[in-house]
Amino acid sequence: MVSSTLTAEKKPVVRAARPSRADSSRQRTAPPVLVFGVIVSALLLFPFGWSILSSFGESPAGQSSVLPEQWGLGNYERLAGYGAGIWTYLGNTVLISVLTVVFSVVASVLAGYGFARFRFPGKTIVFFGILAVIMVPHSTLLIPLYTILATFGLTNSIVTLALIYATFQLPFGVYMMRNTFEAIPKEIEESAALDGCGPVRTLLRVLMPIAVPGVVTVALFAFLAAWNEFLAPLIFLTDDRQFTLPIALQSISVGSLGAVDYGALQAGITVSTLPCIVLFVLLQKYYVNGLVNGALKG
Prior knowledge:
The protein is mainly α.
């Protein structure tokens, strides 16, 4: 009798939640937005895709169609023979970019941590003075810097060039790291202090793992700026063996090393662009988070 009563008891009916009007509107607008995004992405990627495909053609004059008529690595072989060699220029560019990242990250982290956590006289004035440097065009600083460095015989040096690049990146880096550290609750530092951690140990072992998105954003900006910089190495470097990729590509594009070889130029563009794209794709998650945190606290 009891069992029949239990089986006869009606079970609660669980109805599926109906989509709200906002969700329905979002679903209706998603396909047009998706199509628009695909079209814009295709237009932006088409020149780069054409350049990559053309770099594998065998015609030095370049390709008139998207797909090469004959495939081969002749463009890359000729590119390797220009000047001191494309691999020398690539190595110089990598070295300068990595040194710039190291200098920029170390200085930005220390300065940002100081502005976020310590009090000292004139703190606000100094911080906004650093930010004001962003408004100054870098090209206006190159001639005074060259005059000073030439006086002390410090030109034609990759390390000097990396220090100059890092100086240009410091205003943005300090701003980003200051906002990143301010977004971290102070209770975490207080807990670390109770466990016996000093300021340096707290920064390196407690705060830095949390501040990874901001650090990656600063490093990525510094790397891309150093990788693509053209005017500064053209002024400060005079030795052909220390030239960077942008200078080598400019020499090929204007034909200063002989007739213009468009096939080798397309190969050079591919070599100089691929590392930046791969690095951005690998680090885009941290890059977006770092920019969002910096914007929220700015």
